[in-house]
Automatic annotation (TrEMBL):
Entry keyword Disulfide bond: yes
CDD domains in alphabetical order: lyz_i (cd16890)
Taxonomy, superkingdom: Eukaryota
UniProt cross-references to PANTHER family, sorted A to Z: DESTABILASE-RELATED, LYSOZYME
Organism: Anopheles sinensis (Mosquito)
Protein name: lysozyme
An example Gene Ontology biological process: killing of cells of another organism
Keywords noted in UniProt: Antimicrobial, Bacteriolytic enzyme, Disulfide bond, Glycosidase, Hydrolase
């Protein structure tokens, strides 16, 4: 089975579920690609594509589509969600996660102010910047597929930068898989 991915708005959508039962990825890149699934060979050359060198770190490594999926899986992207226990905002971010992300703040706020954490992670734009900062620090290939993509970002977001090779909770995994499949259709991935 092969999946063709078309470039739209500078986003190449490549999708793979976390459970590895079929292959769909979410990455960003400058080149159009044909993605192979279930060990298939490249339809033009009959061989597997050569391994690629890891990309240079990106200013914002997480695509908007991936941020949307992480948000959906975390809280249903409910902007009314505030702090509950040790997590805050629609991305359900802890203070430690925010600190590891570089303590981003809203304009006019100081990282050292008492309310900087809650003010940031309860505001969608600052919360998304927090996720980007965390992924700049901890982005890695968690699922061993040779790519750092949305599935890795989603795993890192849920399990943390040091635990991303652990088992992902099934409810979260299912929400990520469903969202990424919707995004594949939305951004033009064609399943053959």
């Amino acid at each position: 089975m092969m999946i063709d991915v078309m470039r739209r708005n500078k986003i190449n959508c490549i999708y793979q579920p976390l459970n590895h039962s079929s292959h769909w990825f979410a990455t960003i890149g400058d080149n159009e690609r044909t993605i192979l699934s279930n060990g298939s060979s490249d339809r033009t050359t009959g061989s597997h594509p050569p391994p690629q060198a890891p990309p240079a770190p990106l200013e914002n490594p997480v695509t908007d589509a991936c941020l949307s999926c992480i948000c959906e899986a975390s809280s249903g992207c409910d902007t009314a969600v505030r702090c509950n226990g040790d997590v805050c905002g629609m991305f359900r971010i802890t203070w430690a996660y925010w600190a590891d992300a570089g303590k981003p703040v809203q304009q006019g706020d100081s990282p050292d102010s008492q309310n900087a954490y809650a003010n940031c992670v309860n505001e969608p734009y600052c919360a998304a910047n927090t996720v980007q900062g965390y992924m700049r620090k901890f982005g890695q290939d968690c699922n061993g597929d040779g790519n750092i993509d949305c599935f890795d970002h989603a795993i890192i977001h849920k399990l943390g930068g040091y635990n991303c090779k652990n088992q992902v909770p099934i409810v979260y995994q299912s929400k990520i898989d469903e969202c990424i499949q919707r995004k594949a259709i939305e951004y033009g991935a064609v399943r053959q």
